[in-house]
Each structure stands twice: as structure tokens, then as C-alpha cells.
Design a protein that fits this description.
By secondary structure, the protein is mainly alpha-helical. The chain is built from 20 helices and no strands. It has one domain. Helix 4 packs across helix 13, helix 8 packs antiparallel against helix 9 and helix 19 packs antiparallel against helix 20. The longest helix is centred in the middle third of the chain and has 41 residues.
């Protein structure tokens, strides 16, 4: 039944994508691709875990996963949770784009009259990098930046280090590291692709090293892969041979996942990478369907009231609760997490109706991102578009809250790019007002 429904949903998705604009195809394709690979494929495989015991079932048993609750994979509720985004999100996105007349009346942005200063970019980037290093120093974790061998080849050490980093640094630090500083890196990459200026190319290369180094030092792998995916999307957009660029990017991401996993695991093979991609998020979805509301009451809709001190952050414990059900025998991790896409988290908060509402909101964000890609011009506007695409990716991996105002949220690149834009304009405008500094202003705009 599940496979037949999947095929029907895929047909609907393809039909919707074919009628979408180029920008909406990119945005929608990213969401459906990320969700399909990391959640749908794994969910379908789990529905055959008894038949495919030598492959999937054996993997689950070795991983210590509770198999008893997987009986839910034959239920209509699980099918609705797993497959509804393949229908609701594309249909709502395409329909909304056709009737989004308010957005069509907003004119396209224009590149800054003053251009973009590399000097300002370097200053802002160094300030953010210095802040991250300072946080490492204050937390007494500077040694991790200087010696990544402390984390390599020891999986339990890796898990412990990740938990300690979350406790020590907080949302602002990880917001800058996950999506804020990468947004500046996107600016450098797009400027380099636009002008092929060696200085911008060097700035971009340095930003990649800094982002990767900080992420590995905090034992964060998924944000590094997401950052790489966005760079591949940007490179793909500049390529004249789209199919070749797509295949190259897919191979780069696949082998990067393998290499990064090898850094933190004693043994890892290419086949493990395939299982990791298919089951990393998908393995938890059946448990969300089985646990709520039979074993646990719905957590309640997260309205962000805890940010105002008016409620407790119950949302934070959903993934931890599910983890305990998925891995009941794992006791070496104090607070593990079993993340799930935005609509699955919404189901755990308020049930099927709230899940469908969240899918509509995800579709609205996809339409907005398509508009940003179409209308925003210049490296800064395009970097914001890439950040919006990055948010779409995270909506297929974590909760809506985390994707908007959490450590993965669009809030952070918005603030960083807006601040950089303002400083850039003020700096170059000040130079342009002084005739004696005109040559300096011209050089700074390159």
C-alpha cells in the first residue's frame, strides 16, 4: 500500500513541478529532494524491515533501535505523515505562485550603487570569527580548535563533545556558525563567480576553511554538509551544463559525507554513507507516528511564548522523548535527539491538522524563496536567496521553529547580511563624498 501511495504522490509532485517557474522548481525541488532522500526513502525501507532483515533489519538491530513500535508503518497515519508533503507542499506552492499578485507588484531590487567592498567584508568576517574564537576561549575549549585529533576516531567522544558544545555556546553562537557566517561566505563566492577576482576567491577559500574548522571543532557534521550543498547549488546556477554540474555536486556531497564520517568513526564504508543518508532522519518518523498520542500526549503547539518567559520550552524535549523510544538501550548519552522534519514535529505538537497547516506554511516559504531568487539582485541579494534555500533544506530536517529563529534559522543570515549591507553602504558613501578618496572608493568596490 505504502509503495503504491508513494508512486501516486511522486506523479503529483512531478506534475506540479513541471508547471512551476524556474525559481520555484529550484526551491521546490530542493525541499522534495532533501525530504525524499533523508526521510521518505528511509520510511519506505523501514516498512519492509522484516523482509529485508539482512540489510535494513540487520542495520537496525546492530544500532540498538527498538523494532517493536515499527508495526505502525502499516497504518494510514504513518502513510499520511510520511507522504502528505509530497502532495500538499507542491500543490500549494504552485497554486500560491499563480495567485501571489502582491509579490508580483514588488519591483526587483537593484545592485548597490556603491558596489561591494572587500575590505568591509573582511572586517565583518574577522569580527564574527573572532567572536566564535572568543567563545571557545571563554568555555575553555580552545584546545579543540588547535587539535581536532581530540575528536577523531572516537564516536562516544564525538557525541559528548557535541553535547558539551551545545551547553557551552548557546543559540546565538550556533546561529552565527550554522547560517550567519556561511551567508557571508556566500557573498564572497558569488562575488568571485561574478568577477573572477583573485582577492574575492581567496576570501571565499579562507571563509570555507574557517567555517569547516569551527564546525568540526564543535563536532557538527550536518551543518557542514548543508553549507556544501548550498555552494553546489550556487555553482550549479552559474554552470551552462546543468546536468553535469548536478551530478558533480551530488558526488562531491556524497564523498564529503563519507570523509567527514571517517573522521569521527573508527570504521566507515561507502555503503554506510548510503544507509546514513536514507535513515538519518527517516528512522525516527515511524516512532513519531507510533508515540503520539498513544504513548505520549501531544506536546502542544509551539507559539514561541517561552522566548517571552510566558511558557516552558516544551518543543525542545520532543526529539529527546522520541530518541528514548527509538534507542531504549542507549544509556551512554544523557540527552540524545531524534530530529524530524518541520511537519513531523508539528504532528507531535498538535496532531494531523496542525501538521497539514505547517505544510501549507512550508509551501508559502518556498514560494517566498522563489520570489527572492527571482527579484533579489547582486551578491548580497543572491546570498540572501541562498540562505532562504538553506532554510528550505532545514525545514525538511528539523522543526519550523529551529529553521526560523533557532540555531538553523533564517533570522541570523538576515541580521548578518543587513548589517553588512548597511556598513558597506556607509563606508563607500563616505569615501565617495571626498574627491581625494575617489580612487580608494573605486578600488574598494572591486
Amino acid at each position: 500500500m505504502l509503495v503504491a501511495l508513494l508512486m501516486l504522490c511522486v506523479v503529483v509532485s512531478i506534475a506540479a513541478i513541471r508547471s512551476a517557474s524556474t525559481e520555484l522548481r529550484l526551491s521546490l525541488g530542493l525541499y522534495l529532494g532533501a525530504y525524499g532522500i533523508t526521510s521518505v526513502a528511509g520510511g519506505v525501507l523501514l516498512s519492509f524491515h522484516e523482509i529485508l532483515d539482512s540489510w535494513v533489519g540487520g542495520y537496525l538491530a546492530v544500532s540498538g533501535i527498538e523494532l517493536r513500535l515499527l508495526d505502525v508503518v502499516t497504518s494510514w497515519r504513518f502513510a499520511a505523515i510520511l507522504l502528505s508533503p509530497l502532495v500538499v507542499v507542491p500543490l500549494v506552492s504552485v497554486t500560491a505562485e499563480k495567485f501571489s499578485w502582491p509579490l508580483r507588484h514588488i519591483s526587483a531590487s537593484k545592485p548597490y550603487r556603491w558596489g561591494i567592498s572587500l575590505g568591509v567584508w573582511v572586517c565583518v568576517f574577522l569580527i564574527l570569527a573572532a567572536y566564535c574564537f572568543w567563545r571557545f576561549h571563554v568555555a575553555g575549549m580552545s584546545s579543540r580548535l588547535l587539535n581536532l585529533d581530540l575528536l577523531w576516531d572516537q564516536y562516544q567522544t564525538h557525541i559528548t563533545a557535541r553535547r558539551e558544545a551545545f551547553s557551552a555556546f548557546g543559540t546565538v553562537f550556533f546561529g552565527l556558525l550554522y547560517v550567519g557566517i556561511p551567508a557571508l561566505s556566500f557573498v564572497a563566492f558569488l562575488k568571485w563567480m561574478e568577477r573572477r577576482n583573485p582577492a574575492w576567491g581567496a576570501a571565499f577559500a579562507i571563509s570555507v576553511i574557517v567555517v569547516a574548522w569551527f564546525l568540526l571543532a564543535t563536532a557538527q557534521k550536518a551543518p557542514l554538509i548543508a553549507y556544501l550543498i548550498m555552494l553546489c547549488v550556487a555553482a550549479w546556477s552559474y554552470s551552462s551544463r546543468k546536468t553535469l554540474a548536478f551530478m558533480t555536486g551530488a558526488l562531491v556531497v556524497f564523498f564529503t559525507v563519507t570523509v567527514v564520517q571517517l573522521l569521527f568513526r573508527e570504521s566507515w564504508e561507502l555503503f554506510d554513507t548510503i544507509l546514513h543518508l536514507l535513515l538519518r532522519v527517516g528512522v525516527a518518523i515511524p516512532y513519531y507516528a507510533a508515540i503520539y498520542p498513544e504513548y505520549e500526549a501531544f506536546a502542544g503547539i509551539d507559539l514561541g511564548l517561552d522566548l517571552l518567559g510566558l511558557a516552558s520550552a516544551r518543543y525542545a524535549f520532543i526529539s529527546q522523548t522520541v530518541f528514548d523510544y527509538v534507542y531504549p538501550t542507549v544509556t551512554s548519552i544523557a540527552a540524545g535527539n531524534a530530529p524530524a522534519p518541520a511537519h513531523v514535529n508539528a504532528y507531535a505538537e498538535g496532531g494531523l491538522l496542525y501538521m497539514l497547516f505547517t505544510e501549507v506554511v512550508v509551501a508559502a516559504w518556498i514560494v517566498f524563496t522563489a520570489w527572492v531568487l527571482r527579484r533579489m539582485k547582486g551578491p548580497i541579494g543572491q546570498a540572501f536567496g541562498l540562505s532562504c534555500l538553506l532554510t528550505i533544506y532545514y525545514l525538511s530536517q528539523v522543526s519550523f521553529r529551529l529553521s526560523i529563529v533557532g540555531s538553523y534559522g533564517i533570522l541570523w543570515p538576515t541580521v548578518i547580511l543587513a548589517a553588512y549591507s548597511l556598513i558597506n553602504v556607509l563606508f563607500l558613501a563616505a569615501l565617495a563624498r571626498d574627491p581625494q578618496l575617489d580612487e580608494v572608493a573605486v578600488t574598494a568596490r572591486r
